[in-house]
Amino acid sequence: MMNGNGMMGFGAMSIYWIFRTLLVMAGVLLVVWVIFRVIRRAGSRHHDVSSTDPAVRLLRERYARGEIDQEEYMRRLENLTD
Q1: Can you tell me where the transmembrane regions are (predicted)?
Q2: Taking the model in full, what pTM does it have?
């Protein structure tokens, strides 16, 4: 309905602003969710390869026992994960 000033009533405008605010919030949440998923997936790929690969597991054990130094560990780990 129109009021005496020729503008829509307050009720219609408040519904518009509530809807617009909810839409913007949903968009922001969607973007944050997508970023979170991408970061989580990128981190899990490296973790999955190294945790399931028996060669990487053995390399970690050798490093933990002190059989190889950090430089050797990093060099071999890079070779195994490429």
Answers
A1: 15-36
A2: 0.41
